[in-house]
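Page 47, continued from p. 46.
Same chain as before, 473 aa.
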Amino acid sequence: MTAQQDQANRSQTSIDDRILAEEQRFTARNQRSQQMYERALEVMPGGVTSSWSSTRPIPVWISHGKGSHVWDVDGNEYVDVHAGYGVNVVGHANPAVVEAVQRRVALGTHFAQPVEDAIVVAEELTSRFGLPQWRFNNSGTESTMDAIHLMRAITGRDLVIKVEGTYHGHHDLVNVSLWQSLDDLGPEDDPGRIPGPGIPQVIADLVRIVPFNDLAAVERVLAEHPGRIAGMIIEPMMMNAGIIPPQPGYLERLRDLMHANGALLTFDEVKTGLVVAWGGATELFGVTPDIVCLAKALGGGVPCGAIGGTAEVMSAISDGRYDQVGTFNGNPLTMAAARAVLTEVLTPDSYQRAEQLGSEMFAGCTNALAERGVPAYGVVHGFKGSVVVHDRPATNYREFLEIDTAVSHLNYLVQHNNGVFLAPWAKSESWTLSVAHTSADGERLVENMSRLARMLDNTSDEASELFEVGGLT
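Result:
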């Protein structure tokens, strides 16, 4: 064993020890969550309502939220930057959303017929994203499913291009090439079409996989399958790998390539739309695709989804080439909440304030890490931001997989045990702010990042302090 390998092994052992101690603190302060988890195991698979809620050491059960904070069932209070996986940019129990939903409840909650609020919401989305027509559904999964159906119905083609490692919902059509290890991905010039659990290989074979930020790969796929590609679906910023922005000119060239080959381009803005900018990544990067998929932040905490498209694309719905249907599409509660979100809460200046706070948080975090010799990178756009501990920015999923998951899990635990609620999958998920977050909220996250930096600095005394708190001494 070389000296370098020996140092790496000792460093990993040190991180593992720190994780163990923080997990013990986590469990000790969440005993009521532990009890609920054990009770839930009897009646819910995995003891949670969604597999995304499951995390080590135990899932956290929430009591309530207000503004930028949430409280768990043990009474612990947190600055919430989890935001329900990026949903609550309006903050918890936002007065405008509460009033809109309460008013709507008293008037009736379901008719399977349109209500006026739907027109206002569609008009607002047209203004923000530059696409003239919109339809509604109930989740990000439904939005991307509608988009794939539309691209195939319009072009009469079967094959769709997606980016390696990206998640576009749990329907069959694009649940391919997700969360594999580097060993399972296949050669870089021919990534494997690996179906998700329960997805037949025959469905996965209708998808072609390309790395993010790789135009040559897209050109190669188009050349290999002339006249067979219906379109490409892509997150304009890759959002399940920290945040990976597009390289200059990448999105414009994708649109040009698709159109030159009679294919369509879909932006999956479920995570970025209404969050990274007033008009989402579409506005941020100045590229308007054929279809935009929305969900999450649109409903202000109420289940929601929407697809917008060009007049040509949406004419396929108008003339019956594609039946875009759903019993709960345009549900009155959802439309009332979305109208309040778009017209009263997420104003243009709210994005400027959020980005200013996020930039202060990012600078504080990276400075704290740099002072201890810990390299990090990340980005901030609107309500979104990320800090990833690594020596160079990832430009695609394969590069992101090279980053150690242990440090990100330790960060999740340290933040949680000191009053900041991150998403459980801390390596892949970014933070989400809301209109209610304050400088004091941001300072708490930065303070916890300073704690993490001391733990990662082998010359500090943090290890002994941690072991004492964790009860290991």
